[in-house]
Amino acid sequence: MRKESPPDNNTARADLIDKVTGGAVYASDIRVPRMAHGRILRSAVPHARITRLDVTEASALDGVVTILTGEDMATLAQIHWGLFLNDRPVIAIDKVRYVGEPVALVVAETLEIAEAALDLIDIDYEHLPFVDTAAAAIAPDAPVLHDVHDAIADFYFTGQAKPVAGTNIFQKFGVSTGDATAAECDAAHIFEHTYTFPGVSHFALEPHSVVAAFEGDDLTVWSGAQSPTAVQKVLSRVFGIAVANIRIIVPFVGGGFGGKASVKIEPLVVAAARKAGRPVRVTLTLAESMLTCRRLGATMTLHTSLDKTGKILSKRATILLDGGAYADTGPAVAAKAAHRIIGPYDIANLEIEAKAVYTNTVPGAAFRSIGGPQAVWATESQMDEIADAMGIDPVELRRRNLLPRGGEILDTLRPLDADIGDMIGRADQAIMNLGDGAAAGIAVAATDPGILPLGGALVRVLVDGSIIVMSNSVDIGQGVRTVLREVVAKMLNQNPNSIQIANPDTSTTPFDWGTGASRSTVIMGLAVEDAARDASDQILALASSVFDGAPNDLRLVPGGVAHGDEFLPFQDVYHRAFGVDSGEVVGRAMVTPTRDGSDFKKSPLFWETAVGACDVDVDQEIGTLSVTRYVGVADVGHAINPSGAEGQEEGAAVQGLGHALFERLDYVDGQPVNATPIAYRVPAIGDIAKRAHTVLIENGDGPGPMGAKGMGEGGILPVAPAIANALARRYGIRIRDLPLTPERIWRALRKRGDDAT
Amino acid sequence: MTSSTHNISMTLNGEKTNALVEAHTLLIDFLRDAQNLRGVKRSCDMQICGACTVLVGDHPVSSCTMLAVDADGADVVTIEGLGDRDNLDPVQEAFLEFGALQCGFCTPGMILATKALLFSNPTPSRAEIEHHLSGNICRCTGYQKIIEAVESLAQT
Ligand code: FES
Ligand code: FES
Q1: Where are the domains of chain A?
Q2: What pLDDT, on a 0 to 100 scale, did the predictor assign at position A757?
Q3: Which residues contact A437 (CB under 8 A, 6 or more apart)?
């Protein structure tokens, strides 16, 4: 009998160590033998017919392998693809719809040659009228970007987009309860305000990168993809290859935030590899990634009616989202924005309509809390405007309308599982602890993550007691590996350092829906927990034959199985059970909507809640704003990896700060004028609040392992409105358009001065 | 596309290295492709983000905008040369301890920039840390834990 080894707790370290030594391999680090390099020629015009595309001279350049253009699309099984609407060609075919759309892909021996060949391609356009704002896109005489709307149902998300034929509207989503119009008749006050939120870039530091290689009929793709099985499914449709013949491998990913979710450049690179007859790698520049996807911009008008005590009677909202040239997951963004604009308030009468429209701009896509920051910007700014107009303290106005824990934001959704009032109290306390008194601005949010409970995992307990966990949850920096390792370690009572988390690989690993919407901790957490339990049951059954005891006298201990004070390493259990000093036990599990012991019927599985509180300082001469104190509060159920959870909140808050103060993808005449890392500003280290604190609330009441809820998105939600509310409180100016640039602040200060005189 | 080639020699991660490079080869390409040092990360490619930072002498340099020939004769250190798993540099250790990284793509550059800061100023204030690391963008962490990690080094 041997000694049990003590468990070791420093698990996050194992996942991070490769990243501090330069050993971590990212998608853009992948090299395969015989690989050629691709560069993309992109449309320089917003909307046009391609009248001539001549690649003769470019093809003749020494070292050019092949050039992929729209002409090559005819041989595909399916030319247009999408997640909600099959609207996007693999590469532009006779028409371009935005500046940056790929029109040709040169494959060459070296990147330099590919780059040189780009200059030799001749292209002529017949310009078409274009729309570069959502408002222009819904004007009666607007040019229509897509002649047909091929909506697909339940393809990757449940449900179906509702486009309007003959228009640019690709999604219309409504929420209606009670009777808002009647409620307005009884109201003491009605407020109407319009808020705007611009399209913003993900700016993940690693640009999109894909390597595609065919071997006979088998296709292998290395991609920094957040949803490997979505990529696999779309490739299967486009190229007519069985899902089983498509292998998606995801190495480390240098930031995702939704910008690498669903499917991005994979079909394009695979088409090039197929034509080239050899492996092709395309790594975008960061500027090209900015032309690949962005957050949907929004214009939101709110009509809110209240009685004289400050109780909200009704809310009507229209949300117009700029979805860019292709829908991607924009339909889901619109649906979520419609839910998320309600807020955690008790409002009996709601009339909300969200529309997402095509424009001749970079395609919109998922971005940390889809539709959330936009909706919360509007709702939480307006709460303060109403409070101000009615002479009620903004926190008090919220308290009069907040739903309690268990209250229903909509009766079709799961009741609220957090106490927002308590969270406000904790935010107050935390900001006081930072010194200089109460917060100048706060904002709250409750969002319903759109989580499909569908994901599997394998837990393999090997003969020497080392363990491999196979899951398609992608490490985008959110720390999922640490979470999964903790869960398995706990379930199997093993040392976390004996557990390896394998890279996502669709050829060896069960289906998972994807990494996003704060779902991995809950869904993959439960899947690996179930798989570990399955492994444990099998091992104990094996051991019971060895020990000659019933399985319930046996227990797993680090490195093996114990029976009373007897201890047998896994190796000996397997040896005696299998007859050789070899073998393994494979635990498996698939979490589905009908999982035993889970209540997954109602959406959301949990609420992602947030409170932000801050104070600001403005240099009134030049209009620059700095956030002097910031507190974020999140109810996470249980933080399996506390430092990681805190880091997620801090990172989300600083992305929110960027959205609030700097970020906007600008268009002038259909041209993206700042879609480069030089012209587009994201927060730098000196921009963050000098005093900041994150509060994590842990009541162990989430649906995930150990009572965890998903998290990582909520922290972005309250930042912009909290800052704008602080700006209004401290300086008497209300700005309804993001970002809060020095120019806007300066002008508002001047106007305030003029109004006062 | 002919271009002149040059013999260069440098001390790379402590070892004498001779190579033939083309005049227009960027240091980042030389390091990543010819020397297989993929811990040098490429992001903005225009000296904005600092992901490609390496040490040339004691100075932090954006390898995306420096020519390899200009590193002739220099002492160049990439993240691979700083410390390995079993023998981490204190800066790497601090980043781990404080959880000062998420996706890790900015991390090699951030660590080397920190290293350079501590060479020139072993006890930087928060303002000095912010000033010195202002050319290193991190989109994930929100910088809070990076500041804590660097401050912990400044105190020792
Ligand atoms: S890649 Fe060199 S500074 Fe960004
Ligand atoms: S950790 Fe991802 S960019 Fe810094």
Answers
A1: 16-22+452-591, 31-128+203-290, 297-450+603-756
A2: 61
A3: none
Could you identify the atom of ligand 1 that is nearest to the CA of residue B42?
1
Q: How far is CA B78 from CA B8, B17, B41, B63, in A?
A: 17, 14, 10, 10
Q: Is B135 in the pocket of ligand 1 (CB under 6 A)?
A: no
| Confidence category of residue A11, pLDDT binned at 50, 70, 90 | low
- B147 chain-A contacts, CB cut-off 8 A: 685
Amino acid at B124: P
Query: Are the folds of B5-81 and B90-154 the same?
Result: no
Across the beta sheet with A624-635, the strand order is A441-447, A608-619, A624-635, A691-697
CA B134 to ligand 1 centroid distance, Å: 13
- B37 reaches A (C-beta below 8 A): yes
Domains A31-128+203-290 and A297-450+603-756 share a fold: no
| B3–chain A nearest CA distance, Å | 12
CB-CB neighbours of B88 under 10 Å: 17
| Predicted confidence (pLDDT) at residue A462 exceeds the cutoff of 60 | yes
Say what the pTM is. Answer: 0.96
Q: What is the amino acid identity at position A589?
A: A
Measured in angstroms, how far is the CA atom of residue B28 from the centroid of ligand 1?
9
Residues in chain A: 757
CATH of the domain spanning A31-128+203-290? 3.90.1170.50
Rg (CA), chain A: 27
Residue A285 — pLDDT band, cuts 50, 70, 90?
very high
Which CATH code, of 3.30.365.10, 3.50.50.60, 3.40.50.300, 3.80.10.10, is assigned to A16-22+452-591?
A: 3.30.365.10
Q: Is A5's pLDDT higher than 50?
A: no
Q: Hey, which CATH number is domain A297-450+603-756, 3.30.1330.10, 3.30.200.20, 3.30.365.10, 3.60.10.10?
A: 3.30.365.10
Q: Distances from the Cα of A740 to the Cαs of A241, A385, A427, A733, B54, in angstroms?
A: 49, 17, 23, 11, 35
Give the model's pLDDT for residue A518.
Answer: 78
Tell whether A589 is within 8 A of chain B (Cβ): no
Q: Could you tell me where the beta strands, DSSP code E, fall in chain B?
A: 5-12, 15-22, 53-56, 59-62, 75-77
pLDDT at A10: 60
pLDDT confidence of A67, banded at 50, 70, 90?
very high
Residues A519 and A325: their CA atoms lie apart, in Å, by: 28
For range A716-736, the mean pLDDT: 98
Q: What are phi and psi of A634, to 5 degrees?
A: -135, 140
For residue A3, the model assigns a pLDDT of 38
Number of residues assigned to chain B: 156
**What confidence tens digit (pLDDT) does each residue in A222-273 have?**
999 999 999 999 999 999 999 999 999 999 999 999 999 999 999 999 999 9
CATH topology classification for B90-154: DNA polymerase; domain 1 (1.10.150)
Tens of pLDDT, residue by residue over B5-52, are: 999 999 999 999 999 999 999 999 999 999 999 999 999 999 999 999
Cα(A120)–Cα(B140) distance, integer angstroms: 39
Residue ranges of B 111-150 with Cβ closer than 8 A to chain A: 111, 126, 129-131, 133-134, 136-147
A115-119: average pLDDT:
98
Residue B10 CA to residue A755 CA, distance in Å, equals 66
Domain ranges in chain B are 5-81, 90-154
Fold of B5-81: Ubiquitin-like (UB roll) (3.10.20)
Strands (E), A573-673: 584-591, 608-619, 624-635, 667-668, 671-672
A68 Cβ contact partners less than 8 Å away, ≥ 6 residues apart: A91, A104, A105, A107, A268, A271, A272, A275
